[in-house]
Amino acid sequence: MDDRKLKILAAVVDEYVQTGEPVGSKTIAALPHINVSAATVRNDMAVLEQLGLLEQPHTSAGRIPTFNGYRLYIDKLMTTEALSEKERQRLDDMLEAQGALTEELLIQSAGTALAELTQCAAVVTNAAPKFSIISKVEVIPTGKRLYVILLITSNGSIKNKACRLEFDLSNEQLEFFTHYMEENLEGVSVEDLSEQRLQDLIAALGAYMTTLSPLVQGLYELSRDLKQKEVTVSGARNLLTCSELEKMDIVQFMEHTDTVIPLLDDAFSGVQVLFSQESNNFVIGNSSMIVSKYQKGNQPAGALGVIGPMRINYAKIIPYIEYFTQKLTDLISDEDEHEPGQH
Question: Where is the Heat-inducible transcription repressor HrcA C-terminal domain (predicted)?
Fold first, then answer.
């Protein structure tokens, strides 16, 4: 592969990303940085097709990139542009406009902003639960023998569960439970909330065991929910307007968004581009996903990604993802440092 063919491949990808139309040799030959005739371009495009980097849709004389063509372009040929100060300010404003007061909301608002910017679907996995500390457990009476348990963690997660008990609880019993939880669970890592630990808590309730054990059982179920990785998808509807993707694939993806969790988990540090042809975990055919991991302190905490058709503007979208990843890392790491009682 000589430099000229690589330059022509890059030009075909850039042109196709812009127009969505198969690209002809005359279009490429007319570009100022391609100093060869249309005939030479045509020959080179034929070679690129033989190498499996371009293909010719049967209805047209022009060519489009294959996923191998995109892969080579992204790995070797693409140049991304640094964001201007004005663009960075715009991205900051988008994050702030969501009113993200907690870590959870901050991460979701980054996804919302990315979906809006790219007109694709944005996916975000939550911070790993091992970094979450239980800050409060509350019980709220809501009706006859009906109580809601609230579990609040240091990263801003609030989980609740309704529990129906055999008896109404007295104020004394409620106070005992709240105090007991303060003593035994506040400041404990969510990751350490094992079934055994909660069984030990039930056993130590003594005279209150019969009446209060359903609340502890409810807490165990809440902690199990918290430990499961959650994926938030923003802008999935953007994919439905894309003619290059199958509608049924998108509907299936919207119903089973957790299928992308392994792809997000397996991503390395830095920005990666993954193609549907390279993995069985992709629900949407002919699509790609740009993924980046954000950190909390020095630990990986979650991932941020954009899913779209293969024909998306990688050179433009990658700097957005890099910026949001860095911004999230900075914001949630700063927040962690300023949290009282955190070591």
Answer: 106-318
**What residues have CB less than 8 Å from 286, skipping those under 6 apart?**
244, 245, 246, 276, 309, 310
State the amino acid at position 289 in one-letter form. Answer: M
- Number of domains comprising the chain: 3
Over the chain (343 residues), the average pLDDT of each successive run of 10 is: 92 94 94 92 95 87 92 92 90 75 80 93 76 86 91 81 90 91 88 84 87 88 78 91 92 87 78 88 90 84 91 93 91 62 40
129: Cα within 13 Å, side-chain hemisphere: 20
Task: Give the neighbor-by-neighbor strand order of the sheet with 121-125.
Answer: 231-234, 121-125, 299-309, 287-296, 272-275
Whether the CB-CB separation of 114 and 322 falls below 8 Å is answered with no
Contact 170, 177 (CB under 8 A): no
DSSP conformational letter for 170: P
Among candidate residues 175, 195, 227, the one where a domain is terminated: 227
Same domain, 213 and 238: no
Report the distance separating Cα 105 and Cα 190, nearest Å: 19
Task: Dig out the tokens for 321 from the structure.
Answer: 């993802």
> What are the distances in angstroms from CA 251 to CA 139, 248, 255?
39, 5, 6
Query: Residues 170, 251: one domain?
Result: no
Regarding whether 35 and 181 lie in a shared domain, the answer is no
Q: Which pLDDT belongs to residue 283?
A: 86
**Same domain? 241 vs 220:** no
Separation between Cα atoms, residue 28 and residue 273, nearest integer Å: 26
User: Residue 340 has what pLDDT?
Assistant: 43
* Beta-strand relationship, 64-65 and 158-164: unpaired
Report the pLDDT value the prediction gives residue 292, as an integer from 0 to 100: 93
268 and 316 both lie in a single domain = yes
* pTM, to two decimals: 0.73
Structural element, H or E, at residue 304: strand 299-309
The pLDDT, as a whole number, for residue 341 is 42
